Amino acid sequence: MKELPTMQELQSFITYNKTGSFIMHKSMNITQSAFSAQMKKLERLVGVKLISRSTRGSRLTQKVNYSYQKQNKFSTHWNVLFNRFV
After folding, report:
1. In DSSP terms, which residues pair with 51 in a beta bridge?
2. Integer angstrom CA distances of residue 27 from 16, 41, 63
3. Which long-range contacts (CB under 8 A, 24 or more apart) does 10-15 make?
4. pLDDT tens sequence for the chain (86 residues)
5. How far is the C-alpha of 86 from the C-alpha of 77, rounded, in Å?
6. What is the pTM of this model?
7. 19, 40, 55, 64: least CB-packed within 10 angstroms?
8. 20 half-sphere exposure, CB direction, 13 A CA radius
9. CB neighbours (10 Å) of residue 39?
């Protein structure tokens, strides 16, 4: 059976995407090095490079950023539609 990401790994990725930083909020209870290890594991599990790292910092890769924006747009439209009928 294929290993799946943990909820904390997924939550850390979502938090990174919102903040654009490896420096996690204290409420996440995770160090920068632990977060980095989680993201490397997540990349291995999904088979896609998620974060581009350099000496100047880090950011989502172009493909991941594009996909995330499309998913976000879909979610927004879905919520508007759903709320009209509820």
Report:
1. 60
2. 14, 22, 29
3. 10/42, 12/38, 12/39, 13/38, 13/39, 13/42, 13/50
4. 688 889 888 888 888 888 777 666 566 778 888 888 988 999 999 898 998 888 888 888 888 888 877 777 777 767 777 777 76
5. 15
6. 0.69
7. 55
8. 4
9. 20
